[in-house]
Write a structure and sequence with these properties.
Radius of gyration: 14 Å
Mean pLDDT: 80
Strand order of the largest sheet: 1-2-3-4-5
Distance between the termini: 42 Å
Low-confidence stretches: 2-10, 12-22
Number of strands: 5
Amino acid sequence: RRVLFRSLATTALLLGTSLTAQADEASHIPATPQSQANAALIAKADHALRDSVAGLSNVWIFATGDSNAVFVSYKTDTEHLALVEMKGEQIASLRDLNSGTEQVRTASSH
């Protein structure tokens, strides 16, 4: 019972406030049931994205119906909307949906 309470409290903290990974600016996570259910995935994606993409700002992370994927809206020199698929702690693929050409970044291409 105590473990469940701690788990719920941790999830509430993650979702009630913005995540901060390795940058000064926090990531924004909508407080939705789907975000709560995928809090661990969102945290992993946030951390991995900050490790692999330089100069991130205005980061928003949205849960999807896929247990290994999130949508991420962020800004570097331009605005980006990406589908990020995770494999464990690493990005398996990052598909920038704003790109005119199909660009897919994978863990092996970093």
